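Entry for glutathione complex. Fields follow.
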Amino acid sequence: MKLIATLTSPYARKVRIALAEKRIECELQVEPVGVPDSPVFRFNPLGKVPVLLLDDGTAIYDSPVIVDYLDNVTPVGKLIPEPTRARIHVKSWEALGDGIVDAAVGIVMEKRRPAAQQSEEWIAKQRKKIDHGLQALSQELGEKDYCTGATFNLADIVTGCTLSYLDFRFGEIDWRGEYDNLARLAEKLSKRKSFKDTVPPAA
Ligand SMILES: N[C@@H](CCC(=O)N[C@@H](CS)C(=O)NCC(=O)O)C(=O)O
């Protein structure tokens, strides 16, 4: 099994942390994305990472599908609970975290375009999603130890990757100053080996 990824993708980091937490061995293949002849198109018609390549050549994407698959490969370190309501709660949390990252990645891409082609209005619209998303994450977390209660699961992985991506690309967003509870959670998560081993390299 092989994971096609970049070292800076927050979606790929989610999968790498899930692999580590579940103690699943997987080769990492780093490939460039966002370039016209990216080799990733050979595995994913959308040209996006992460892609999980199974030994029989099957390509699995995107990150929520990969994590769902991995969680069923072994019961070790279950990341998504079985009961429907609990499962949907965790998956909704994943959708929220990924949605914040979608907006953040979108802004990063927009700012790479020539200045004259950038839309301030579009950037402001994405920024609103980030701000509202952070508020929702904090409200949902409340005073709990982990996102959905007393135990670590996929919701925590996604939240940790999301907050860390904001640090990585948007140092000016002071989410720690605004949300004590998110700061506490992020600090706790950053001590896990799976998070330490997947910190993105300096930009
Ligand atoms: N919904 C996808 C998003 C994946 C994604 O957008 N990955 C970015 C890297 S952070 C990418 O490959 N971008 C290249 C492109 O859009 O061409 C997932 O969760 O896997």
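NOTE: The longest strand covers residues 2-5.
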